[in-house]
Amino acid sequence: MAQPKVILGMSGGVDSSVAAALLVEQGYDVHGITLQVWEEEDEAVASSRRWQERGCCKVGLAKHVAKLLGIPHQVVDTREAFRKGVVDDFVSGYLHGTTPNPCVRCNERVKFGSLFRLARDLGGDFLATGHYARIQPVGSVGFEILKGVDQKKDQSYFLYRLSPSWLPHILFPLGELQKEKVWRRAEDMGLPTEELKESQEICFVTQGDYRQFLMERAPQAQRAGPFIDREGQLLGQHKGIAFYTPGQRKGLGLATGRRLYVQEVIPETDAVVLGPPEELLRSECMVADLNFFNEHLLNDEDTVEVKIRYASPSMPAKLHRVSPDTLRVQFAAPQGAISPGQSAVFYRGDRVLGGGIIQRFSTRRSPSRTHSTLEDTQSPVPANSINSTVLLPG
User: Fold this and answer.
1) DSSP characters over 144-169
2) Residue whose C-alpha is closest to residue 11's, from 69, 76, 72, 70
């Protein structure tokens, strides 16, 4: 009987390397794929070392692990798709006053989409990655994503936009493991754990500061505008709305004698609203561009747990349907620095119900006062065409 064929995304990091070893042990026919998404592999430099780390794809190490395990490996150029679907989206989001999450978009538009097409072309039965998450069947209604057992490393937040039709064909070998066990396994494999650093937050921002990246990629981001308070009073001048996000305090360049934080960004007037920390608290937000795994399990005004950023804990909230693709999220307790452009992901315990993109707060200003409401003025971003049904053989 033929072994099930698994197409494994291999970034060259510790997680995908250990995932490869586990799948081989479990009897799968593993084919490693490294997606070249950003910088080119420098073969001249790589030849002087066993591997060369460049950007988010450590191609040399992925090749080394594949050879060690005796599995085929290939590098696939997806730089154009990554630029259009992730980098351009990232830049555009900041230029329009939102705070995008490139990892969410990459999983949706590039990583899983590209790997599924490759799996189909190669006759694969499953697609696997080194994410810390789990997939389980839900009776006769389909499959759902669960948080990874290691709550500190859980990556389910970044996976909520995957198509429900993909889930039966996805394997997450690390979903049941603690990170410490993964590191030990990497050492047992003889991998250079001292060189296997954790992935950086934004793989293509190698300068360490997204603002520098924006200035190089989009010089028009440096467009000065007014700092104002909630009353519409002028407080000073800023360098460009792309460089500010809700909750930010550092880098404002103002000396007012009081603590001020970015409250919101108004791209229509290039204004950045500042205020004290207590004004960052909001009890609700609008979420659109929705994706659900089991929407029939979600009733109007249900209480769920909601994460509004990856590093924050889930908070209880009620969901109210506003339109087929928009929900109003009403939190049990006010939340600080809710950022339009970020993802709100809905959970019930460990189960990922789905999520969407936080929308801008509608702002209407008169000469004497700035009013903020929760009406959505930004049209929902259309779902990318890559979020479509892909059926693998077998």
Assistant:
1) EEEE-SSTTT--GGGGTTS-GGGGGG
2) 76
How far apart, in Å, are the Cα atoms of 320 and each of 209, 248, 331? 37, 29, 11
What does the alpha-carbon distance between residue 339 and residue 307 come to, in Å, rounded to a whole number? 12
CA angle, 219 then 224 then 229, to 5°: 140
Q: What share of the chain is helix, strand, coil (3-state, %, to 5)?
A: 25, 30, 45
- Select from 2.30.30.280, 3.40.190.10, 1.10.3720.10, 3.40.50.2300 the CATH code of 221-278: 2.30.30.280
Side chain identity at 279, as an amino acid letter?
Answer: E
106 is catalytic: yes
Instruction: Confirm or reject CATH 3.30.200.20 for domain 281-372, answering yes or no.
Output: no
Which among 57, 103, 203, 285 is annotated as catalytic?
203
pLDDT tens figures, 129-162: 999 999 999 877 689 999 999 999 999 999 999 9
Q: E-assigned strands of 83-233?
A: 126-128, 133-137, 143-147, 170-171, 225-228
| Options 3.30.420.10, 3.40.800.20, 2.60.120.260, 3.40.50.620; CATH of 5-188 | 3.40.50.620
CATH 2.40.30.10 occupies which residues in the chain? 281-372
- Catalytic residue (choose from 56, 57, 103, 106): 106
Stated pTM of the model: 0.85
Per-residue model confidence as pLDDT tens digits over 291-332: 998 766 676 667 899 999 998 999 999 999 999 899 999 999
Q: Which residue type, as a one-letter code, is found at position 243?
A: F
Element (H, E) at 213: helix 210-217
The CA-based angle 125-131-134, given to 5 degrees, is 70
